[in-house]
Amino acid sequence: MYGLQPTHLVIILIIALLVFGPSRVTDLGRALGKTVGEFRAASKEPDEKIQQGIGSGASQKQEPPKPA
């Protein structure tokens, strides 16, 4: 529905180049890449913790609490 085709990306890049200039576009691209990388790392962290919790919980059998 809202798919970006390669021609759309080229047009967006040309407009960004005209508006910001060549040195600023590289800085923006670098910052965007760093942000995406940090977002991916942050979104993987909870998944890994859940998997570790499931793995350790399955291997350890817990006994029910004894009445006092």
What portion of the residues fall into strands of 2 or more residues? Answer: under 5%
Task: Give the topology string: H per helix, E per strand.
Answer: HH
User: For the CA atoms, what is the radius of gyration?
Assistant: 24 Å
Tell me which oligomeric state these chains represent.
single chain
Keywords for this entry:
68 residues; mainly alpha; 78% helix; elongated
Describe the model:
- The protein contains 2 helices and no strands.
- The chain is mainly α.
- The chain has a domain at 21-48.
- Helix 1 packs across helix 2.
Task: Write the SSE topology.
Layout: H1 6-20, H2 22-59
Helix pairs in contact: 1-2
Q: Brief overview, please?
A:
By secondary structure, the chain is mostly helical.
